[in-house]
Every structure is written in C-alpha cells, then in structure tokens.
Amino acid sequence: MSRPLANIQAPIALEMKEFEKKFRQLMKSKVLLLDKIMGYIVKRKGKQMRPMFVFLSAGVTGKISESTYRGAALIELLHTATLVHDDVVDDANYRRGFFSINALWKNKIAVLVGDYLLSRGLLLSVDHGDFDLLRLVSQAVRDMSEGELLQMEKAKNLDITESIYFDIIRQKTASLISSCCGVGATSAGADEKCIVKMTLFGEKIGMAFQIKDDLFDYGSTQIGKPLGIDIKEKKMTLPLIYSLREASSRDRYKIRSIVKSNNHKSKNVQAVIEFVKESGGIDYANRVMRRYIDEALSILDGFEDSSYKDSLQQMVEFTISRDR
What we know:
Radius of gyration: 20 Å
Oligomer: single chain
Strand order of the largest sheet: 1-2
Structural class: mainly alpha
Number of helices: 15
C-alpha cells in the first residue's frame, strides 16, 4: 500500500486487517480449481479503497460493527464479479498488472467464477438478514451495467453531451463509491438523513474519481493508464466533449472523424490530445472535478470531528492527487 493510503487507513488499520482475514476465509471453496482461483483473486487485490470508504463512513456516522465487515465484503464480492465479467466482455488479458481470470483459465471458467462471486455476496447478505445493504449494493451493480450499456450505445455516433456523460459516470463509477458510503453508514446504525448524506458524499467522490481517470488519457505515458486509450476506444470523456462543443464546425468534423475512424494511429491520437489541450478541455475538466470535491467536503463538514472524518477528508484529496 502506498504511504498516503497507509496514513489515511490509520484509524481503521485494525479493522482492515481483520477484514482481510475474514474476506480470505469467505473466498475459500471445497472445489480445488475454484479455491485456487479465489486465492489468486485475493492475492492481486488493489488499494482496497472501497472497504476503506465503508469502514470510514461507518466510523463517521456511528459504530463499526459485524454488519460493517459484511457490507465491505459484499461490496468487494459483487464488484469483483463485475470486473471478472468485464474482462471477458472486453477480451482483456490484464487487470491491475496481473493476468485476468479469463487469460489464465479461459472465458467459460471466468464467467462461472463471476457467477460464483455474485452468489457468495447474495448469500452473505441473505443469511444474515442484511437486506438494506444488499439493496444498496444491488442498485449499484444495476446502475454500473446500465452506465456501461449507455456508453456503448452512444459511442456508435459519438453524440454524448455533457449531460449524458454525467449520467454515464454517475451510474458507471459513482454509484459504487456512493454505495460504499451508504453501506458504511447503514451498517453503523445511522439514521436515514445521515445515510442519504453519506450516499451523496460518495457520489460526489465517484464523479471526481472518474473525471480524474479521464484526465489520465491526456497525461504522460508514465502515469495511470496508457496514453490515449479512451480515444482509441471511442470513449467521449469530459475534456473532449467540452473541446468539441467549443470548436469550430470544421475542427469538430475533423476531430470526430479521427476518433470515429482513424483513432489507432499514434499521430492521430496525439492530434486529438493536442486539440483538447489547446481548447482548454483539460482546464475545464479540472475545474469540474474540483467542484465535485468541494461539494463532497461541504457534505462532510456537517459531521462531527473525528479521526475517521479526517481520514475521509484525506481520501477525498487522494482521489484527485493519485497517479493511477
């Protein structure tokens, strides 16, 4: 774990250790092949920002409980299931620098593994009567699927407006972080007003998180994802949407043509990147991202001061300062 995240995690360090132990146990299976794959999934875990949001949100709004551990596990199980299925859909061979499940065990097994993870999450909640948590996370998974499909539909004609873009990232990315914060508050026994506030707080962070991810497309090749990957995949992100809106009809036609038909040549990708930079698309996206961050911090201000609140504030800033 990077140093900043280790510092942020300090108030919940013991809980996160306990969570890892519980989660590893939860992933075990009597089927040898499945147990091997589950071990591989646990080993390649990322920054664990989602469980951190769950535990910190619980700490801010009430008391961390066994329900909090189950809520964090539910988020991880259902989200991991969607990632395994996404890699099959995208025919992706890598995930976070590791081989994907489908790359190592082929598509059929990967789909079944995703199904297994989904069922483990559902049973974890049903067996303990955590129906409020299950509702929150299930809504997020539904929204993520709808967001992906909406993006695919609009990518055909590159007709994504700023309003549609916000709808897509609200469903595709923000819904999951929103559910993390909602689950944390719900598991801590917070009242409905607090749960709504924390859910909205998570949504604002999620929006900023995705805009930051979009900006990586225009950075150097040393950070984040490969340079220009969104352009190559015909994804209309905020910097490009703004730049096209502000452009002359001639430039708009030229750039749309590149993105639609000639987006695999590096010189064409570079031309789009330069166009966006010169049009102020990067600065505009940064301003919008900052606005979401300020709105999130404003919501957080309404809660009592605590080490959990301090860490959540640091998580907010980490969202926009991260390099991947």
